[in-house]
Amino acid sequence: VRKIKVSLIGDVLKPSTYILTSNSRLLDLFKTSPGLKSTSDIRNVKIINRSNDTVSVDFLTFLRLGNIENNPFLSDGDLVIIEKVDKTVFINGQVKYPATYEFRNGESVYDLINLAGGLMYKARTDSIEVVSFDVDGIKQFSKYYSLDNIRWFGQTKFPGKFSCKKNNLQKTWHSLFVHFPILCKTVDIFKKNFCP
After folding, report:
1. CB 79 within 8 A of CB 15
2. Is the CB of residue 108 less than 8 Å from the CB of residue 157?
3. For residue 158, which of 120, 121, 193, 115 has the smallest C-alpha distance?
4. Sign of the CA dihedral 155, 159, 164, 166?
5. Residue from 106, 107, 100 nearest 189 by CA
6. Cβ neighbours of residue 131 under 8 Å, at least 6 residues apart?
7. Which uninterrupted H or E stretch holds 182?
């Protein structure tokens, strides 16, 4: 069986070069290494090949949703870089997997709801609250969406006034929260720093 050498560096327990079989995937590299840190960003994994071509992989979508494209085959000489978590999204309430998730550029609120396992049966789909804060994190702004609106705008980055466009709201808006009420009760939510 042919072997390949792949380097794993960044926010990992033991940065090193590992010898794998030629049909190894990203998961195999992680299983062979001593592991990742709790601060490792597995949603923005960079793989650089010998030609200096870079791909960005959202490994969590493989683990959570079975998206095989995000568990790619590795090649001899690949460099896998794991960054430390920087921008995060917190989602809580009536979703299957409430947690803090790493933010990935270009994803929509609907994508994040799906990553969190989707809405639970009791979730109110007519009042998903998106809360944003100014750069200082002091002034809060709220807006409500229905799940249908979020689905409709799902192909864009945070529709309407939550779009992160140059010279638009980039300097004003800093964090985003999405709120999932349970029937008439308010519950806590979804945080993300989306403007650099």
Report:
1. no
2. yes
3. 193
4. positive
5. 100
6. 140, 141, 142, 143, 176, 177, 178, 179, 189
7. none
Whether the CB-CB separation of 162 and 125 falls below 8 Å is answered with no
Say if CB 89 and CB 112 are below 8 A apart.
yes
Q: What is the pTM of this model?
A: 0.73
* Those residues with Cβ within 8 angstroms of residue 75's Cβ, 6 or more apart along the chain or in another chain: 4, 6, 49, 50
Structure tokens at 190: 């979804």
pLDDT for residue 129 is more than 60 = yes
Whole-angstrom distance, CA of residue 194 vs CA of residue 196:
6
Measured CA to CA in angstroms, residue 174 lies from 36, 80, 137, 167, 196 at distances of: 29, 30, 7, 14, 8
Give CA torsion, residues 58, 60, 61, 62, to 10 deg.
Answer: 100
Query: Mean pLDDT lowest for which of 15-29, 55-69, 121-135, 150-164?
Result: 150-164
